[in-house]
Amino acid sequence: MKLYYMPGACSLSAHITLHEIGKPFTTEKVDKNTKKTASGEDFMLINPNGYVPAIRLGDGAILFEAPAVLQYLADTNPDAGLAPNSGTIERARLQQYLNFTASEFHKSFAPFFSGVDMSVEERENCVARVGTRLDFIEQILSDGREYLLESGFSVADTYTFTVARWSGSIKISLENWPSVKAYVDRVSKRPSVIQAMTDEGLLS
Q1: Residue 53 preceded by cis peptide, ω within 30
Q2: What pLDDT score was predicted for residue 102?
Q3: Three-state SS string across the chain, please?
Q4: Is residue 204's pLDDT more than 80?
Q5: How confident is the model at residue 132 (pLDDT cuts 50, 70, 90)?
Q6: What is d(CA 92, CA 70) in angstroms, rounded to the nearest whole number?
Q7: In angstroms, rounded to a whole number, what is the distance separating the alpha carbons of residues 53 and 65?
Q8: How confident is the model at residue 114 (pLDDT cuts 50, 70, 90)?
Q9: Spatial contact of 141 and 180, defined as CB atoms under 8 Å apart
């Protein structure tokens, strides 16, 4: 299996998940600007949408979109315990959090990474939008749970952690969301996270 990634992008969630699983895999970096892989492939032929993550399976099939990739990895490696069983309310909760992160939390950061300069007012509006999403996560975690699901660490956490840590790169402090801050700090200490971030050059 091969993971196509951009350092620190949402593909970090799949990278963490693969280390949690502990089976052999390879990675290939994708240039955000040229859409070329490190070996010179045209990434647009791998994922026509041009974004990561994408995984190439052993039979050559390609899968992309973070929620789909993460659930596939969890479901095909059940011993890792990264997703509740299908048909349970906990599985529906997992899908709820994955979809929220993909469609709301992740999307709220898009203006900051668009390359388009924002006015002060536009930035304030975008910061407020991110804050609203952080409010929701804070509410979930405020009951003292360690991870999003009460059953424990899951692929929903690999994705939500990845997006939440972007707050630092756009200078949004998590001090106003103490449960989220503690959550990010806690997840960042997992060996799988340390290894994936080291692999991507995010940690020295």
Answers
A1: yes
A2: 97
A3: CEEEECCCCCHHHHHHHHHHHCCCCEEEEECCCCCEECCCCEHHHCCCCCCCCEEECCCCCEEECHHHHHHHHHHCCHHHCCCCCCCCHHHHHHHHHHHHHHHHHHHHCHHHHCCCCCCHHHHHHHHHHHHHHHHHHHHHHCCCCCCCCCCCCCHHHHHHHHHHCHHHHCCCCHHHCHHHHHHHHHHHCCHHHHHHHHHCCCCC
A4: no
A5: very high
A6: 14
A7: 7
A8: confident
A9: yes
Distance CA 91, CA 170 (A): 32
**Token representation of residue 17:** 């998940």
Q: Per-residue pLDDT tens for 145-168?
A: 999 999 999 999 999 999 999 999
Residue type, 135: D
What sign results for the dihedral spanned by CA atoms 154, 158, 163, 168? positive
Query: For residue 140, what are its two tokens?
Result: 């979930």
